[in-house]
């Protein structure tokens, strides 16, 4: 895509400083060269900019509280799913389930056609410019594309598993499993797209409950409840577990759709429409932007998850279960960065549309720093006691994956410390650069992963994944700096303000308690 076409898809109005007539009068200056603008006007502008940044930080603080609480619930329920499945299914079936779950998640990403990032970006930009009509146009156009893409993605997933699943991965009984996975893709893609749209309206309370690999904490609770209830009477099979997963996802589809409709109508009604003409979004622009976003997300997911597919095609299902269990524990380290992404995704497009790059960099680096601190705290016990932790959560069989777990944790730490670099590229119109990096790393992972798995088994696969993901994250970080103009990597200097932040949090809770006692 040419630079001119990229700029055309940004849907950003020209800056007021450059949009005016060329004969505009320059500001008056004193003989000594100083501007004639009074000190009171300058201080007023500084206070205005400071209040805008403070308002953004307050909103992010409120959202982060909900995101952290909801994500902790999601982590707890996801761990509970792993614990339950490891105890009701034999290791070979656990490996197959994790393989199908990986395929399901990838197909769900592709079925969204990049709308989970594209629509959030365009809606957030329109909201940031008080363009209500433009935001409504984005929602209408995006809904049409979403219906077609999600149905198409579900059918393609069914066809692939039905005709190639046994030959590629050695999975049997696909006459039952393939339709269940396809229906799960339909539910997962719909729920995740709805959760993304809720974040564009800064509604973190419900969006976080719908965010996750299997539809979020609400879906996880339904899945766990049905599996545990049935396991009290019979030993469930892999097919029955997939039925529970599919039902849990499909039940939440109407909840997600109705929630987006109500919250979008409410939020847009609160915005005072701008006096400037609305820049309605053409369908062609949406498709041009979302296609590379879909490819970027798909290739990024391949780099992050293709090791499961490589393992499923080369090693036996018991070894795959060991590797998949280690990956599940490794994801605990990356959870803080996922919280950051969920919190700042809408603000990236909004702040950039307003030209506030310094504020954006400050928020991104601060968030990455605190996420890295939490991730390191989680990583230390996992690196010291990997076998004991794996055996405690999954069972004694999974203690043999300790070495794999240690290797995977290194790559996950790099992912967290780099920050939301890829997301910044995608939400800033630089998705083609992210796509280029993902193409290179995906090809590299497939080549190195296959060769090293054939040579050293799941340990070689872990080394290949960690190396490629680390290079990918560094590439995203450098590209965000060169293309967008902001650093996203953690900044240890932010830790110096930790006491001030903790004091502010204590003051907020103390004030809330005082108000509650007065009432």
UniProtKB/TrEMBL annotation:
The keyword S-adenosyl-L-methionine does not apply. The keyword Cell membrane applies. Pfam families: Polysacc_synt (PF01943). InterPro entries: Poly_Biosynth_Transport, Polysacc_synth. Residues 1-53 are annotated as: Disordered. It is a multi-pass membrane protein. It comes from the Bacteria. It is found in: Cell membrane. Its main location: membrane. This is Polysaccharide biosynthesis protein.
């Amino acid at each position: 895509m040419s630079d001119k076409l990229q700029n055309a898809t940004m849907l950003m109005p020209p800056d007021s400083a450059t949009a005016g007539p060329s004969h505009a009068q320059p500001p008056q200056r004193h003989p000594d060269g100083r501007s004639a603008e009074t000190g009171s006007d300058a201080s007023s502008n500084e206070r205005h900019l400071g209040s805008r940044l403070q308002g953004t930080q307050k909103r992010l603080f409120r959202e982060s509280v909900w995101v952290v609480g909801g994500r902790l619930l999601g982590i707890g329920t996801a761990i509970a799913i792993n614990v339950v499945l490891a105890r009701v299914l034999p290791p070979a079936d656990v490996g197959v389930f994790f393989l199908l779950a990986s395929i399901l998640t990838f197909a769900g990403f592709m079925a969204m056609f990049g709308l989970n990032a594209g629509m959030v970006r365009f809606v957030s930009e329109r909201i940031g410019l008080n363009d209500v009509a433009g935001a409504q146009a984005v929602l209408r156009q995006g809904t049409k594309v979403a219906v077609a893409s999600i149905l198409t993605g579900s059918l393609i997933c069914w066809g692939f598993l039905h005709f190639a699943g046994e030959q590629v991965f050695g999975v049997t009984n696909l006459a039952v499993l393939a339709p269940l996975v396809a229906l799960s893709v339909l539910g997962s893609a719909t729920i995740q797209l709805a959760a993304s749209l809720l974040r564009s309206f800064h509604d973190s309370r419900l969006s976080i409950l719908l965010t996750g690999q299997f539809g979020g904490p609400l879906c996880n609770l339904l899945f766990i409840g049905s599996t545990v209830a049935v396991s009290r009477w019979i030993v469930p099979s892999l097919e029955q577990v997939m039925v529970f997963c599919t039902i849990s996802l499909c039940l939440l589809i109407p909840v997600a759709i109705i929630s987006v409709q109500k919250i979008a109508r409410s939020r847009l009604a609160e915005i005072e429409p701008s006096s400037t003409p609305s820049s309605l979004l053409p369908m062609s622009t949406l498709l041009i932007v979302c296609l590379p976003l879909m490819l970027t997300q798909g290739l990024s997911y391949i780099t992050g998850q293709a090791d499961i597919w490589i393992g499923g095609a080369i090693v036996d299902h018991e070894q795959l279960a060991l590797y998949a269990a280690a990956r599940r524990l490794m994801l605990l380290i990356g959870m803080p960065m996922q919280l950051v992404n969920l919190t700042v995704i809408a603000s990236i497009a909004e702040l950039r549309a307003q030209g506030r790059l310094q504020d954006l960099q400050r928020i991104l680096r601060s968030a990455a720093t605190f996420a890295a601190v939490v991730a390191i705290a989680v990583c230390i016990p996992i690196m010291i006691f990997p076998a004991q932790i794996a055996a405690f959560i999954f069972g004694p069989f999974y203690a043999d994956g300790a070495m794999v777990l240690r290797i995977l944790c290194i790559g996950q730490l790099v992912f967290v410390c780099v920050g939301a670099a890829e997301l910044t590229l995608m939400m800033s119109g630089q998705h083609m650069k992210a796509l280029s990096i993902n193409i290179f790393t995906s090809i590299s992972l497939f080549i190195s992963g296959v060769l090293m798995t054939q040579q050293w088994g799941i340990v070689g696969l872990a080394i290949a994944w960690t190396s490629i993901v680390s290079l990918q994250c560094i590439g995203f970080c450098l590209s965000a700096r060169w293309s967008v103009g902001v650093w996203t990597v953690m900044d240890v200097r932010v830790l110096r303000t930790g006491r001030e932040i903790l004091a502010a949090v204590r003051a907020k809770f103390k004030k809330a308690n005082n108000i509650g006692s007065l009432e």
